[in-house]
From TrEMBL:
It comes from Agrobacterium cavarae. Keywords: Cell membrane, Membrane, Transmembrane, Transmembrane helix, Transport. Belongs to the BioY family. This is Biotin transporter. It is a multi-pass membrane protein.
Amino acid sequence: MTTRDLVLISLFSAIIIALGLLPPITLGIIPVPITAQSLGVMLAGVVLGAKRGTLAVLLTILIAAMGLPVLSGGRGGLSIFTTPTTGYLIGWIAAAFVTGTLSERFVKAGQPALTQGIGFFLASVAGGVVVLYAFGITYLAFATGIGFSKAFIGSMAFIPGDLIKAVLAALAGRAVMAGYPLLPQRT
């Protein structure tokens, strides 16, 4: 790993943390707030790829676990692993990895802009929505005892916002790819 890789990992961890400064929005029907940090997870995957994006998320979680209030709502410390939202937090790791892996496979430097944008969007939806929800909903259902179907239905209220986040991540990924590509290219 190069110094550049370490700087990019740290930078994207800082972006995820900065997005946590935006206040969470609670819906009341489910104990999971709407936060902007999942956008940072998607961004890490589409811009940095699987390895560095996942490491950026792991660094963020490590910083939070050490007690710094870097998660949305000013949360931090080991207690973050004892809440109904823990599945989403753990899901960030898999979400960044899947988003990055799919971005590396679907998006190439010589592709037209629209093709790159669609590739980034699909990678963001697959990793940042489908994979993230699989972890989050499953853990939420068991941790709260509300059952999988109620947790699933309650989580559907987040889909429109997460699709908007996926569009933003795709646009940002495309802009970075056009100006200063950081995404590892697989042959």
